[in-house]
Design a protein that fits this description.
CATH superfamily of the largest domain: P-loop containing nucleotide triphosphate hydrolases
Helix content: 25-40%
Largest sheet: 9 strands, mixed
CATH architecture of the largest domain: 3-Layer(aba) Sandwich
Distance between the termini: 68 Å
Number of helices: 12
CATH topology of the largest domain: Rossmann fold
Number of domains: 3
Radius of gyration: 26 Å
Shape: elongated
Number of strands: 20
Strand order of the largest sheet: 6-5-7-8-4-9-10-11-12
CATH class of the largest domain: Alpha Beta
């Protein structure tokens, strides 16, 4: 006999009034193990892999291009999709719009909501313009009732909002517990595989940013999507973290407005719509997010410190990278930041994980420090501790995206091992010296 915590999944050989791992009161639930006789089952059917049809499943387009892109072309019959994201980021809104778009193309969508009443969802649907009669709604918390309704209707899409708020009567604990989430997901996945109906499960996230519930949930589903973006800003990004039917790390972009999520098919043009390259401290960086190039603006402001301890404020880039760049600029470019406040940010609320953001960040910082605008310029490259500028992946794709937007001046490593941060600053016109380098798409490079 053993006991399992319904909150964190910790197992204990004896019962206690609290979980020794997460300290939740009364969370340990007895696990009953089946007898040996109950474990006996019929022999599993075995077939040769050569006899299995290898033709790919036909996909059905949702009707929202950015969402279809992330899914790999549309919905696969019987696929189970888990979508996570912070509260208020727009998960329910996007999926309700997806249900409306699918219905508009001749399909049927069933939305099972356990967090809101039917009236609340109806108000949002009218605001979003989702009023198609083929969009069906069920305000239900019982998983078996949801499965029974879906089995009768056989929709082209089933949305369960959310998997942490539905439950199964036979399982102990409240909805959201480990046992309830595991069993609810298992029954919904079984229905999807048996019926061929694609199922989307909305998932809450923890304070650490991960999807709540047992990690097993992410392993058993076919696709894991994550909707992210600054709640105070308009841009939203749907990121594919796992996809059994297509490429991972695909990214779809949307703009949140009063009428719902609006697709952003050209993120570079959208992000640089108000870009002013004539001011100090502004450099364009061609980021590669997943497999998609997009131009973002990196801004920096260097000002006299008004306190004994200078401030270092960073948004959108790892703060440790910016501190490293300041040390490299002081050591190898002879620039001083003592007594200076340094602020660095990425416009639009984008978070950059690309190491190629080092060079544009350094150029923006020096441009602001010297109060010298670089003009319309794009840059990419990883800056090392010894002052070298290393090449990063997708050089050609970055150059093509920069050329498409008409930015002629480019600073990027040539990859010959002689690229230095000092030469990059000279090429950008921020330090005196030679600017000889290798041409990139008709531009100047380090």
């Amino acid at each position: 006999m053993s006991y399992q915590c319904e909150v964190c999944g910790h197992r204990s050989i004896k019962w206690m009034g609290f979980c020794p791992q997460c300290r939740s009161d009364g969370a340990l639930i007895e696990e009953r193990r089946p007898s040996i006789a109950a474990k006996r089952a019929a022999k599993a059917a075995v077939v040769s892999i050569a006899n299995i049809d290898g033709v790919a499943e036909s996909r059905r387009s949702i009707g929202i291009g950015e969402l279809d892109r992330v899914l790999g072309g549309g919905l696969v019959p019987g696929a189970v999709i888990l979508m996570g994201g912070e509260p208020g980021v727009g998960k329910s809104t996007l999926l309700l719009q997806a249900a409306g778009a699918l219905a508009a193309s001749g399909g049927t969508a069933l939305v099972a909501t356990a967090e809101e009443s039917a009236h609340q969802v109806g108000i949002r649907a009218r605001r979003l313009g989702v009023d198609h009669p083929a969009v069906l709604l069920a305000a239900e918390r019982d998983v078996d009732a949801i499965v029974a309704a879906a089995a009768e209707i056989r929709p082209d899409l089933l949305v369960v909002d959310s998997v942490q708020t539905v439950g199964v009567a036979e399982v102990g604990g409240s909805p959201g517990g480990v046992a309830q989430v595991r069993e609810s997901a298992a029954r919904l996945i079984h229905f999807a595989k048996e019926s061929g109906v694609p199922v989307v499960l909305v998932g809450h996230i923890t304070k650490d940013g991960g999807i709540a519930g047992p990690k097993l949930l992410e392993h058993v589903v076919d696709v894991v999507l994550y909707l992210e973006g600054d709640v105070e800003r308009g841009l939203r990004m749907v990121r594919s973290l796992k996809n059994r039917f297509g490429a991972t790390h695909q990214v779809g972009l949307f703009e949140m407005r009063d009428i719902g999520m609006i697709e952003v098919p050209d993120p570079s043009e959208w992000m640089l719509a108000k870009w002013r390259g004539s001011v100090p401290g502004s450099v364009v960086f061609p980021a590669i997010d997943g497999r998609r190039p997009m131009l973002v603006e990196v801004q920096a402001l260097v000002a006299e410190a008004t306190t004994p301890q200078p401030r270092r404020s960073v948004q959108g880039i790892e703060a440790a990278r910016v501190h490293q760049l300041l040390a490299v600029l002081e050591r190898h470019a002879g620039l001083g930041f003592a007594g200076k406040d340094v602020y660095v940010g990425v416009v639009g609320g984008i978070r950059l994980r690309d190491p190629g953001a080092d060079l544009p960040t350094a150029l923006a910082i020096v441009s602001s420090l010297l109060d010298e605008p670089t003009g319309p310029i794009a840059a990419w490259g990883e800056v090392g501790l010894t002052g070298e500028v290393r090449s990063v992946a997708h050089h050609d794709r970055r150059a093509e995206e920069v050329a498409r937007l008409g930015i002629e001046k480019v600073v990027a490593p040539a990859g010959n091992g002689r690229d230095r941060i000092e030469r990059a600053l000279q090429t950008a016109g921020l330090l005196p010296g030679q600017t000889a380098g290798v041409g990139v798409s008709g531009s100047r490079a380090v």
